[in-house]
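Course assignment 3, question 2. Fill in each field.
Student: A.L.
Task: Predict the tertiary structure for the chain below.
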Amino acid sequence: RNKEPVRQLNTQAPSSKDLNFPT
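Answer field:
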């Protein structure tokens, strides 16, 4: 479930989400 929402959040804020969900 982490990699699915990560893509959506990455488009909005890859900086903040990338730290929380490092793919």
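Instructor remarks: Residues 3-12 form the longest helix (10 residues). The two ends are 12 Å apart (CA to CA).
Grade: pending
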